[in-house]
Amino acid sequence: MIPYGRQSLDQADIDAVVEVLKSDWLTQGPTIERFEAAMAERCEAAFGIAVCNATAALHIACLAAGLGEGDVLWTSPNTFLASANCGRYCGAAVDFVDIDPLTWNLDSHALARKLEVAERDGKLPKILVAVAFSGQSCDMRAIAQLSRRYGFVVIEDASHAVGARYAGRPVGCGEFADMTVFSFHPVKIVTTGEGGLVLTNRPELADRLRRLRSHGMTRDPAQMDESSHGPWYYQQVELGFNYRITDMQAALGLSQLNKLDGFLARRRELVARYQALLADLPLTLPAAQAEAESAWHLYVVRLQTRRLSRSHREVFEGLRAAGIGVNLHYIPVHLQPYYRDLGFKVGDFPEAEAYYAQAISLPLYPAMTNEQQDLVIDRLRHLLADGHASGL
After folding, report:
1. What is the 8-class DSSP label of residue 333?
2. H-only helix segments in 97-245
3. DSSP state string for 80-132
4. Widest CA span in the chain
5. Is the pTM above the cut of 0.90?
6. CA distance 126 to 124
7. How far are the Cα atoms of 157, 208, 220, 224 from residue 227, in angstroms, in the given order?
8. Residue 118: Cβ within 10 Å count
9. How confident is the model at residue 387 (pLDDT cuts 50, 70, 90)?
10. How far apart are CA 82 and CA 321, in angstroms?
């Protein structure tokens, strides 16, 4: 089986984790601070707050921005569930903005139209979670301009986009978003096993994010309501969570970060081969967002189903049967039973639904060989050739 994605680990990664295992710190130790600082420096951000996973990162980012009952969060329907669920965790309502038919990211033009209506109706969002789908940022310049006009907070869900760039700067720098969230799941660009990170340039957000990841506790006398009782003293000043990452995970992340440029280079080589070798097939290939340089977490194609006699499912299952571990990113969130129970229905976001009916994520990871990629392409070519509808 050729998987759609997988981690790339070497002896240096193993040695980094073993070094921590032999140290005095396994959990909340100095390696976490080094990892946070390294990520912030790489992304040209002021503060990094590492947590146990990217879902936790989204949750505390929403809380730090003040999201709560009576508020509304908007995001893309073409994303993993967490991009919407983080709003529900805070007691907020959730709504969606349809995707761009070319880039498959949240459509900034659709966003502008929806904001005009929301302002008229007094239902503007408090937060927009702008998802960098497949590793490529949305039209963040336009989104930032709209956020200044309408007063909403921008969280860039860059779980796919460690190492990506936008407008000549690293994703996470904070030029176009108040906070940026990364994921370090094993199939992402770099891994800590599980893990996530929030980047921000605003010190008040960083302070609150640190409290929220650790039970709402502080040892800072300036945040307490009475004088310290002694060196042991701490206070819980708000309701927080145990969202802490470990030193073992941070050590793996630091080691992986040293290889990030190589990972990105290999992903881009493989994408260039896909783009060239699939160009003559009845497929819609990924398109570039203006000013964005993707990290290429995913390589997604869309079947031009009207030119095929095989169905979307038949092509997908044919690839799986051939030992090619394709996947589908994503089922539109608004069509999940939980969100349908909240009132969403088929037809609400037609671009995302049309995308879902055609999309297939092909294998892409740094250790993938050209020979493995050729097998993927050959099998896909065979299925599509056999599946051409006559006369079309």
Report:
1. G
2. 108-121, 140-150, 203-212
3. -THHHHHHHHTT-EEEE-PBPTTT-SB-HHHHHHHHHHHHHHT---SEEEEE-
4. 83
5. yes
6. 7
7. 39, 20, 10, 7
8. 17
9. low
10. 30
Assess whether 345 carries a catalytic annotation: no
3-state secondary structure of 186: coil
Closest CA to 153 of 97, 80, 205: 205
- Cβ pair 110, 362 in contact under 8 A: no
pLDDT tier for residue 144 given thresholds of 50, 70 and 90: very high
* Rounded-to-integer distance, Cα 238 and Cα 335, Å: 35
Answer whether 113's CB lies under 8 Å from 106's CB: no
By C-alpha distance, which of 135, 153, 134 is closest to 144? 153
The secondary element (H helix, E strand) that includes residue 340 is: helix 337-340
CA–CA gap between residue 278 and residue 331 (Å, rounded) = 24
- In 3-state terms, what secondary structure has residue 25? coil
Q: What is the pLDDT of residues 361-375, one digit of tens each?
A: 999 999 999 999 999
- 323-376 pLDDT tens trace: 999 999 999 999 999 999 999 999 999 999 999 999 999 999 999 999 999 999
Residue whose pair of structure tokens reads 């904001």 in the numeric block: 115
Integer Cα distance of 388 and 392 in angstroms = 8
Residue 26: phi, psi to the nearest 5?
-110, -25
Buried b / exposed e over 192-201, threshold 16 CB at 10 Å, is bbbbbbbbbb
User: Which residue carries 């930032």 as its tokens?
Assistant: 144
Give the closest residue to 364 by CA, choosing from 282, 279, 286. 286
- The residue annotated as part of the active site, out of 22, 126, 188, 345, is 188
Which CA distances in Å does 103 have to 302, 349, 351, 360? 11, 15, 11, 15
Neighbour tally for 308: CB within 10 Å: 22
Nearest to 49 by CA among 62, 41, 37: 37
